[in-house]
Amino acid sequence: MRFCSPIIAAALAMMVAACQPVPRPFMPEEGIKGPKTLAPLVDGGGIVVLAVDNVPPPVSEALRRAMIDALAEQNIPAAASGSNVLSRFLTGTARTAPGPSAAGAKTVEVTWDLADRAGRKLGAGTARMSVPPEMWATASHKALAPLADGAAPAIAALMQEPPETRVLQPSEIPLHVWPVAGAGRDGALALRLAMEAALGRRGFSVTETLSDNGLVIAGSVALGAVAGGKRPIAIEWTVLDGGGKELGKLDQKNAIPADALKEGWGPLAYLIAESAAGGVGALLTRLPARPAGAGS
Question: Quick one: what percent of the chain has pLDDT higher than 70?
Answer without folding.
Answer: 74
